[in-house]
Amino acid sequence: MDYIIQLRQLIGHRPILMVGAAILIVDAHNRLLLMKRSDSGCWGPPGGATEPGERVETAARRETLEEAALKIGDMSLFGVFSGPELFYRYPNGDEVYNVTIVYLARNFSGAVKLDHEHTEYNWFALDDIPANISPPMIPTIEQFKRTFSSL
Q1: For the chain, first and last CA: distance in Å?
Q2: Which residues, 6+ apart, have CB-to-CB distance to 103 below 8 Å?
Q3: Mean pLDDT for the chain overall
Q4: Quick one: pLDDT band at residue 2, thresholds 50, 70, 90?
Q5: Collapsed DSSP state (helix, strand, coil) of residue 150
């Protein structure tokens, strides 16, 4: 059984500190892959919580494979995001303070195939990134826009 599910059975909806990993996947046309969450309708990159003892890099690759069916090749650290702005209350009432380690990848294989956590996906040019980004991912996407607009 998933670690977070087991933890939630013990503590209910109270806030927890959650370490997560995400990958900003950029294609050959410099477009960013974003997926629309089925629970909130907000957009974000593939990613999720690390399991106890799991390396963050492994979690990022695993979550991307599970959520988007993409296998990631080389990736580099994009940034570590934390702080009060990464607090999130899920639609079911669960509360988390996220610490998210984000990677950047241009080397991937496969074709996007969504899991049950998402309803759609799209590759977005920098100027077309939607406004309704999943709240804990807003600082990451803002940093991505600043970084890539200067290139």
Answers
A1: 44
A2: 21, 22, 23, 24, 57, 60, 75, 76, 77, 78
A3: 95
A4: confident
A5: coil
- Cβ pair 19, 54 in contact under 8 A: no
Other Cβ atoms within 10 Å of 17 Cβ, number = 9
Class of domain 3-149: alpha beta
> Is the whole model's pTM more than 0.90, yes or no?
yes
Residues 29-55: pLDDT tens digits? 999 999 999 989 999 999 999 999 999
Over residues 99-115, mean pLDDT: 97
Answer for the pair 102, 23: CB distance below 8 angstroms, yes or no.
yes
Residue whose tokens read 């804990």: 136
Q: What are the structural domain ranges in the chain?
A: 3-149
**Does residue 108 contact residue 70 with C-beta atoms inside 8 Å?**
yes
